[in-house]
Amino acid sequence: MTFHKEGYTSLALTILFLLVLNAAIQFYLPQAHTLKWIIYILSFMFLAVIVQFFRSPFFDISTDETTVLCPADGKVVVIEEADETEYLKDRRIQLSVFMSPVNVHVNRNPIAGVVSYFKYHKGKYLVAWHPKSSTENERTTVVVQNSEGVSVLFRQIAGALARRIVWYVKEGDIVEQGQQFGFIKFGSRVDVFLPLGSKILVNIGDVVKGGRTVLAELPSALTAVTATEGHATIKPVSIESLTASAHVAEQIAEEEPTIIENEAHQGELPLVIDHPKTEEPKKTVKKAAPKKPAAAKQKGKKE
């Protein structure tokens, strides 16, 4: 268990405030023993809350290409189909996790892959469980695409108390599953948009742990495209497949194709055969000489 770096400033300000408060009580009200003890107890409790809120536990993360890890500690409050209109623009399964002030507020990548989209939105500070908080509150939107071409969108959403969202990713980053991608201060929620056909492994009301609870199992890329019912997206080509294709293309380019001209059909395109096993010699067609007319022979004799 460590103290998260995002809490250094808050911890320093809290300690400074409590020291000044307790020193003032001790100096101006030295005889108010009951009041001093109340202030001492409240100061200790407040400091404990700050330390507990910014804690960052250590644990082993089990990674799997086919699963989706929970991005934050909290409680599952939404599992439903919804239209994702910002980037994916298709039908998805929305799964939302509400974080209370007593939860760990570290946010972790639900899958591994490449960050294909990131955007920060300024907005309102509605309570985190409000239906419009996903689209109107201050938030960030992150889309990570795995090696199979399956994309998962997730959002950090600020709430009534959480007025600051911190993120550590940008477009083009290669991220690992369970790695920290951000932090939300003082409670809010995280939405995850999964492809249709995903197998959901949690229920509404379940208490989940970021980086440890498995929320769902992802479908294959083909199943995910089929399940979108007409909102199919083009599966991107991986770097490995491009490299393999280029290698095959180079091998093919080394062997020039043989072109066979069809003399009987000069107006048609030539027939091209790639990589012929044997090359047969062309047959020479002999043409007969044209016959001279009879009149021309008789004229030659008279002369």
**Assigned CATH architecture of the largest domain:** Distorted Sandwich
Number of DSSP strands?
18
* Shape descriptor: elongated
Helix proportion: 25-40%
Largest sheet: 8 strands, antiparallel
Please mark out the parts with pLDDT under 50 across 5 or more consecutive residues, or reply none.
232-246, 252-276, 294-303
Structural class: alpha+beta
Task: Walk across the major sheet and give the strand order.
Answer: 11-7-8-9-13-5-4-15
Mean pLDDT: 78
CATH topology of the largest domain: Glucose Permease (Domain IIA)
Site (Cleavage (non-hydrolytic)): 187-188
Function: Catalyzes the formation of phosphatidylethanolamine (PtdEtn) from phosphatidylserine (PtdSer).
Modified residues (Pyruvic acid (Ser)): 188
Biased composition (Basic and acidic residues): 274-283
Can you characterise this structure?
This protein is 26% helix and 29% strand. It has 2 domains: 2-56; 67-227, Glucose Permease (Domain IIA) (Distorted Sandwich), CATH 2.70.70. It has 303 residues and is of the alpha+beta class. Helix 1 packs antiparallel against helix 2. The longest helix has 21 residues, at 8-28.
Summed up, what is this model?
Helix content is 26%, strand content 29%.
Question: Key terms for this structure?
Answer:
alpha+beta, transmembrane helix, disordered C terminus, 303 residues, three-stranded antiparallel sheet, eight-stranded antiparallel sheet, phospholipid metabolism, phospholipid biosynthesis, 26% helix, 6 helices, elongated, EC 4.1.1.65, Glucose Permease (Domain IIA)
